Amino acid sequence: MILLEIRGGRLETKKSFPIQGVLDAENSEILGAFFRDYYLNASLVPPCIFIPADIQDEVIPVIDVLQEKTGFRPKIKSPKGGDKRSLLKIAEKNAELGLSERLLATHYRDQTASLKEIQEMFSLERLPHIIECYDISHFQGSQPVASGVMFVEGKPFKQGYRKYNIRGYEGINDPGMIHEVISRRLQRIINEEGVFPDLIVIDGGLTQLTKACEAAVEAGAEGIPMVGLAKKREEIFFPGENEPFIFDMNSPGMKLLRHLRDEAHRFGVSHHRSRRN
After folding, report:
1. Is residue 230 part of a domain?
2. 157: phi > 0 → left, psi -120 to 50 → alpha, else beta; which?
3. Does residue 173 share a domain with residue 56?
4. Per-residue pLDDT tens over the stretch 214-246
5. Are residues 63 and 167 in the same domain?
């Protein structure tokens, strides 16, 4: 909620009031309730108050009470044009910007919490600012393709998405295909002097993860943390560990990893479908 105070034709102050717990309420109800709470408790009421037209019915009873309480009745206006209407528009725009900033700040805190949890889950040296995930798609081994998606600061980074047509394998050989794709990806980063991801997630179990790690060693990039995420029970596989780990599926970190994996799968299926057509 934004309140602009005008004195002598100049904007004196802008006050911002966060509104909580009103998701199911109409805007007119929220504005009317704010008007009542604010002006019935105000030490100083201005002679004229500009409001949106749709809260006139909510405001008039408050003005009646205010007059009974103080003996003073401010003018209530809903300008349709001119400078006064512009001021209302400024207040509305400020409210929209304030909401956007709050939502962005909340989203950033949530994403940071997810990345921090992933860092702790996998004992990473740093926050995984860049995470990549790879998935294999084919129909009974025919026309196999792979997809790679990139999340930066916990959000999809479409410029970092990659499509691959598998060159070296036919039939059903997901581990071998993962080896090929990870080899190609890491070699490209090395050749272009690019930036390695902070974490690579393989859509699959221990066998796929093992082949991905072999590709990293062969490329001289064995320092990149890698894990496997198997769909059936959302199990996490670590290099060198035969038994999977199961984390809380509803934790912020796991939700982000599942989103990443599902996005890689969606992107891969889309690429495979377009190739078949």
Report:
1. yes
2. beta
3. no
4. 999 999 998 999 999 997 788 999 999 999 999
5. no
